[in-house]
Amino acid sequence: MHFGQGLEFRVCNNTLQSRNIPHGKLLMASKIVPSGVAEVANLQAKEGYVYIHP
């Protein structure tokens, strides 16, 4: 889902499951993706995003 100015909030389902966090605890506008790592890799490979680690 989109927040102001094109910001999207995506949540890793693997993390939710491993930490026993129910989907109902998330913001309604959150988009649940199967794997956060795979989502980042896909965004980098196909959409030109860059992950910067502090």
Could you describe the 3D structure shown?
The protein starts with a strand and ends in a 7-residue tail after the last helix. By secondary structure, it is of the alpha+beta class. The chain is globular. Strand 3, helix 1 and strand 4 form a beta-alpha-beta unit. The longest helix is centred in the C-terminal third of the chain and has 12 residues. The protein has a two-stranded antiparallel sheet. A two-stranded parallel ribbon has the order 3-4. The chain has one domain. The mean pLDDT is 89. The chain has 2 helices and 4 strands. 33% of the residues lie in helices and 19% in strands.
Q: What would you call the structural class?
A: alpha+beta
Please give the radius of gyration in angstroms. Answer: 12 Å
Number of domains: 1
Mean pLDDT metric? 89
Low-confidence stretches are none
Give the overall silhouette: globular
Question: Assembly state here?
Answer: single chain
Strand segment tally: 4
Q: How many angstroms separate the termini?
A: 26 Å
Q: Count the helices. How many? A: 2
**What level of helicity do the residues show?**
25-40%
Spatial order of strands in the largest sheet: 1-2
